[in-house]
Design goal:
CATH architecture of the largest domain: 3-Layer(aba) Sandwich
CATH class of the largest domain: Alpha Beta
Strand order of the largest sheet: 2-1-3-10-4
Number of helices: 11
Order of helices and strands: HEHEHHHEEEEHEHEHEEHHEEEH
CATH topology of the largest domain: D-Maltodextrin-Binding Protein, domain 2
Number of strands: 13
Structural class: alpha/beta
Number of domains: 3
Largest sheet: 5 strands, mixed
Length: about 325
């Protein structure tokens, strides 16, 4: 009987991923105390390839594909992902069974002298491998020198000192979940840096036809988070964005109306298109899709095509 009650949960093996997965398990156990859970650690391409920026690795699902394969094959019963890592199209056999309540989606600055972005020295060296962060930083201060920074959160924090950086940019949610909030120098406001689509949110991915598991995970689904992330992902899908494209977006709900703002940037931050849209929560996907179309029409398509062409030419060198 005990074996029948055990649910296998797929997770990446990083410290942060395991913290997130254990949090999901604890929430599920609150509602299902009779169930037993076991974590199956699965390494992804993104975990193995830390020698290159994500934008150079290409493809989609760098941190999710191996988990999805295990899920489809029945080796695990559900997978826990950071929502920002999940492609807008997932395998047809799978579904997002639940989207728990979102953590604060802001990006944060951690600087060696606890300075804010405004007070960093001229030509400050900032570590990040995110093109979205890089482009928005350069749009704010073109003098910044942006250096590639890969690795888990502990590794990136270490490199702040070992690689002679003035600062690094990371997601607030990761620091919060790992109880590292004390190291934050500045929570970067949205008017300087919009987050990645889904940043701060978790996805619980399941098999579509597994009614038992889907019923269990539905108990920790947060309707507001689900709607806002749905709008952001609809925008991303329309823009056909990935880790090679500097796109930021954030949606929130106020008085049953969903508001979303987004930005598309050139790689050097020299040109940005920022816009916002709103509508009834029930039309979350439509709102995101409409905002994306408007941004494409207002010059976004030109920026995106230029970026894709640049990466295509580099890939063929």
């Amino acid at each position: 009987m005990a074996k029948e009650r055990q649910i296998i949960v797929g997770s990446r093996g990083s410290k942060l991923a395991l913290i997130q997965t254990n949090w999901v398990i604890s929430e599920l156990k609150k509602q299902n105390p009779e169930l037993e859970f076991k974590i199956e650690k699965i390494s992804t391409k993104g975990d193995k390839r830390t020698d290159a920026p994500l934008s150079r690795l290409g493809g989609v699902g760098l941190f999710t594909k191996e988990l999805e394969v295990a899920l489809i094959k029945g080796k695990i019963d559900l997978a826990v992902h950071s929502a920002k890592d999940v492609p807008t199209e997932i395998p047809k056999e799978l579904t997002i069974g639940a989207t728990p309540k979102r953590e604060d989606p802001h990006d944060v600055l951690i600087s060696s002298n606890n300075a804010s972005l405004e007070k960093l020295p001229d030509n400050a060296r900032i570590g990040t491998s995110s093109l979205r962060r890089k482009a928005q930083l350069l749009a704010f201060r073109p003098d910044f020198k942006i250096l590639d920074l890969r690795g888990n959160l502990d590794t990136r924090l270490q490199k702040l000192e070992t690689e002679d950086l003035d600062a690094i940019i990371v997601a607030y949610a990761g620091l919060r979940r790992m109880d590292y909030k004390g190291q934050i120098s500045q929570i970067i406001p949205f008017d300087i840096m919009l987050p990645a689509v889904g940043q701060g949110s978790l996805f619980i991915e399941t098999r579509k036809d597994d009614s038992k598991i889907n019923k269990i995970v539905s108990g920790i689904d947060d309707k507001q988070t689900k709607a806002t992330v749905e709008a952001e992902r609809a925008l991303l899908a329309k823009l056909q964005g990935g880790c090679q494209i500097p796109i930021g977006a954030y949606a929130e709900i106020k008085k049953n109306y969903l508001h979303i703002e987004a930005v598309i940037c050139t790689l050097d931050g020299d040109h940005t298109i920022k816009d916002r849209h709103s509508g009834p929560v029930s039309q979350a996907s439509k709102i995101g899709d409409e905002l994306a179309q408007r941004m494409l029409d207002n010059g976004g398509i030109k920026i995106l095509n230029e970026i894709r062409q640049k990466f295509k030419s580099v890939d063929h060198l």
